[in-house]
Amino acid sequence: MGFEDITKKAQDFLGDDKVKDALKSEQAEDISDKLLGGVADAANKVTGGKFEDQIEGARASADDKIGSD
Question: What does the longest C-alpha to C-alpha distance in the chain come to?
Fold first, then answer.
């Protein structure tokens, strides 16, 4: 599965109305921040930091989409 496939699946998941409602809570915000940070850290480790700027951009974009503040 390529990076584009993973991105598309994440976008589809985050576009679901039930998921959007669940992600509006403060608890979900805390969890999503931790999850996105962990995923970004793992991706940077796997890529040896070669794509750190792109990974951070993707993390920030995802956080903007699902974040409540």
Answer: 36
